[in-house]
Amino acid sequence: MKLFIHGVPDTPHLWEPLVAALGLQEQDYLAPALPGFGCPRPDGFSATKDAYADWLVGQMEAAGGNVDIVGHDWGALLTLRAASLRPDLVRSWCVTNAVIDPDYRGHTMARRWATPVLGELVMLGMRNKKRLLPALVSGGMPRSLAEQEVPLIDKTMRQSILRLYRSAAGLRFSDEWVKGLENLPARGQLFWGETDPFVDLSVGERFAKRWNVPLHVERGAGHWACAERATEFAALLRSHWT
After folding, report:
1. What's the CATH superfamily of 2-105+173-241?
2. N or C terminus: which one in the chain shows less Cβ crowding within 10 Å?
């Protein structure tokens, strides 16, 4: 089973270009929404990084194990964590434009979201859909994707984002999240948009060298390279899976 995990501030719409490029049928893959991202957040769900990692392990179990899992942005971070917790459920993994790295200190917006009061003020600004759409496009999100995602960025998603980033101190990882990478299944792959303004290519290069994982750099593409260059990504995944 193919399992696709989106990031922030996205929904499963992210994967539509890639799924089309791969020619997958509905029975061949799962692309669940993170709780609170374009869907309700269950009562009692804390929306912390560990809660989302546990949720993803549950998705892997529900898929029957032996999954080929692909994650982008926060979905990439959760993929690495879940795969390190339950390598027995993973056939292969691939992450794009985010990795667990103890030396990475987070991008500017991540640090703002992680800061009490400031994060809430930023989220107030994100309520303005007419300003939010061009802001995401200028950050590299394909316009067609932004037009799908922006209407779904509601109060529930905004609150979930704040909880998630604060649980990770604005994308600063240490302790068991880093140590656990030693348990990652060997069959891994990185796919990186060269011009990502949020997570520099050097972060991916450092991870690839440290953990001996192949790195594909998509020249001229940005943070959402997985959607922007869906055809190229699909070709890489086909090779990786076979």
Report:
1. Alpha/Beta hydrolase fold, catalytic domain (3.40.50.1820)
2. C
